[in-house]
Automatic annotation (TrEMBL), chain A:
Source organism superkingdom: Bacteria
Single GO MF descriptor: fatty acid synthase activity
Source organism of the structure: Streptomyces zhaozhouensis
Family per similarity comment: Belongs to the enoyl-CoA hydratase/isomerase family.
Entry-linked InterPro entries: Fatty_acid_synthase, HotDog_dom_sf, MaoC-like_dom
Annotated CDD domains: SAV4209_like
GO biological process terms on file: fatty acid biosynthetic process
Domain MaoC-like as annotated: residue spans: 23-129
TM regions (residue ranges): none
Signal peptide: none
SUPFAM superfamilies, alphabetized: Thioesterase/thiol ester dehydrase-isomerase
Name of the protein this chain belongs to: Acyl dehydratase
GO CC, any one term: fatty acid synthase complex
Pfam families referenced in this protein's UniProt entry, alphabetically: MaoC_dehydratas
UniProtKB/TrEMBL annotation, chain B:
Family note: Belongs to the UPF0336 family.
Organism: Streptomyces zhaozhouensis
CDD domains (UniProt xref): R_hydratase_like
Domain FAS1-like dehydratase: 6-137
Protein known as: UPF0336 protein SAMN06297387_10427
PANTHER family: HYDROXYACYL-THIOESTER DEHYDRATASE TYPE 2, MITOCHONDRIAL (PTHR43437:SF3), HYDROXYACYL-THIOESTER DEHYDRATASE TYPE 2, MITOCHONDRIAL-RELATED (PTHR43437)
Biological processes annotated in GO: fatty acid biosynthetic process
Length: 151, 158
């Protein structure tokens, strides 16, 4: 058995309420530029402060899909196999605001936590994981849920 | 003006296939800071039972959004696209996307609602591989803000 498969979480080992290791992800302007290029989403609200302010935002904001990807990492890292995710959904409740800051300072952070909410199917070994994502003390995702098949 | 309800249920023809490339997956995984070996190392992916490197779950959006974008840009629908924010996103997977997939997207307008003057539109995009098999489905909810203070502080995809 390889390390990758050995690391997988077993259905039998989790209970409702089992917590996933929480993570904090830093975000700065460079992160967003890189994500814009990789995702092909070049909306200027994610890199142009003048434009973002003009359309009524407090500052440049992170792509919602970037935040969703960060929260997803908590699930895929825990499950071991990213291919074990069967469903994943979120509501974008507040933007992650990413100001331009001097080098060495933290522009923004997204803190993600999760726990097993329901053991869905003993045969299929599926669970529903409920996630929370917070940035600057605001909930940035709502109804963030993933269905995962465990080992 | 509220959107035309007759668009509910309307389907759009499948897009030209999008070919999922190993290097695009690697680039995307790096951009989200994720060093999971299943995204970069074919051997690690195979150890998990996948024939090639797989894509992170949210990679689906890169494929589905272009198709959804064409739907919301349909001038007959009359959506004011400059006011559109991304309010919800949901994916379901038959299997993970992987390098070598050639995926075409069939989009359907699933619902149109009016909430406090905002137009709320849900588009379903089904990703099919070359054999015609369903690989993943994306549900994208977009809100066209009325401009009032109650506008959802959503994500603002354009």
């Amino acid at each position: 058995m390889t390390q990758e498969t050995a690391r997988r979480v077993a259905y039998a080992d989790v209970e409702v309420g089992t917590e996933l290791p929480s993570r904090t992800f830093p975000v700065d302007r460079a992160t967003l530029v890189r994500y814009a290029g990789a995702s092909l989403d070049f909306n200027p609200i994610h890199w142009n402060e003048r434009f973002a302010v003009e359309v009524g935002l407090p500052n440049v904001i992170a792509h919602g899909m970037f935040t969703m990807a960060q929260a997803g990492r908590v699930v895929t890292d825990w499950a071991g196999d990213p291919g074990a995710v069967l469903e994943y959904g979120v509501r974008f409740t507040k933007p992650v605001v990413v100001p331009d800051v001097p080098e060495g300072e933290i522009a923004a952070e997204i803190t993600v936590g999760g726990k097993v909410a329901v053991k869905l199917d003993d045969e299929q070994r599926t669970v529903r994981v409920d996630l929370t994502a917070v940035s600057a003390e605001q909930k940035v995702l709502g109804m963030a849920r993933a269905v995962v098949r465990l080992a | 003006m509220p959107l035309d309800q007759s668009f509910v249920g309307r389907s759009y023809p499948p897009t030209e296939p999008y070919e999922v490339g190993r290097e695009k997956i690697r680039e995307f995984a790096q951009a989200i800071g994720d060093d999971n070996p299943a995204y970069a190392d074919p051997e690690a992916a195979r150890a998990l039972g996948h024939p090639d490197v797989i894509a992170p779950p949210t990679f689906v959006f890169l494929v589905s959004y272009r198709a959804a974008f064409e739907v919301i840009s349909d001038p007959k629908l009359g959506l004011d696209y400059s006011r559109v924010v991304h309010s919800e996103q949901k994916f379901s997977y038959v299997r993970p996307l992987r390098a070598g997939d050639r995926l075409s997207v069939s989009s359907t307008i699933e619902s149109i609602k009016s909430l406090m003057g905002n137009d709320v539109l849900t588009v379903r995009g089904e990703l099919h591989d070359e054999t015609g098999a369903l690989v993943a489905t994306a549900h994208t909810k977009l809100v066209a803000r009325s401009g009032g203070d109650d506008a959802p502080a959503g994500e603002g995809e354009r």
